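step: validate -> pass
step: tokenize input -> pass
step: predict -> running
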Amino acid sequence: MAISIDTVYQRVLAIANKEQRGYITPQEFNLFANQAQLEIFEQYFYDLNQFNRTHGNDTEYSDMLEGLDEKISIFKRNQATVVSTTNTPGYLATFGSNLVTNGTFDDNITGFTAGVSAAENGGSQSHDVGTGSLKLQNDAANNVFRTTQAVATTPGTLYRARVSVNTGSLNTSASNATATAGILFNGVPSPTIGPGFSSTLDVYASAIGNFTNLKLFISGNGNTGATDFALFDNVEVSEVSSRKIALNSDVYRLGTILFTNSSGEFIEVDKVLPNELVYVNSSPLTKPSTTNPVYVLEKNNNGSLGDFSISLYPSSIGISNVSYNYIAKPTQCNWGYTIVNEQAMYDAVSSVNFELHQSETVTIVNKILELAGVAMQKQDIQAFATGKDNKEVQQEKS
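step: predict -> pass
step: emit ->
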């Protein structure tokens, strides 16, 4: 059961003797309360390290390690599912061999066929003799032309599709639409480029089945002129060795990461440091695989998600088969109130209680009083609270 924030506030006000020594406003109290909660919470891990070095006891209620575990268990999250930011390559990701048939188009366009729907067939493809590229051209009746090749893939694995595109001969003179060129892999589009450019386009996507469609396209053209086309060359689809995964936003300390294989067995994913990854990848014995997966812990740069992300190796480990254990951050507490007759009155609906174990009630009060004493410049309050806090610590660790 959570600790009532209103109970703590009233005790703090009573001990501080609010009428004589100064009033602690709700805003100040909320700041002090969250600071105190974090201090107590962080101390758990230092205490856990210290008590692990001593012998426990076999009493039912006074073993310090068991007591700490009970307090920390409130924040334990087991077998949480992962949150993927995007299909982003992980740290030091490498790329496998090209899986596309004749992706350079030096001789012909083997393997690429017209699109699967009528809307995708409104154009033509040919081999450009001058450049050795694949030439795609729309007709006047359609807004898109796609040519497709099915690539053999491993389900769940992350792939990179890449192509060199030259739109120097693409124009919009016969249409109000803006002509573009690009690629799609498993339906995921790459960035597109307009007329008059030459660029290499990349797109990352996970394969769903044993075959995945790679599509090259031009759209929004509608000009039947022979000089109106886009050129595609150096087409590649290659397996990516790792993928980046974002973790939940409330992760405070990461525990074990688990992978469930095809047999339903749990395999622990080993943590490696960034500087160790080069050596892990260089040896056939330690190279990551589905039977020996590893991860690198990183800071997540996507501000809308949590603080942490991991680079998972290999990328063939499906995200849906990965779970992890962690310690969550305490939820920010808040003494909510409404103003009645110019007085702040407790509002249970907008309030958030402390998440800490109920045994921490006295400690929370003492720590808030310490902070309040500093803020009000009342040394006697600070000294009283500090003495109580030190006495409690000595009792716990003696």
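step: describe -> The radius of gyration is 31 Å.
step: cleanup -> pass
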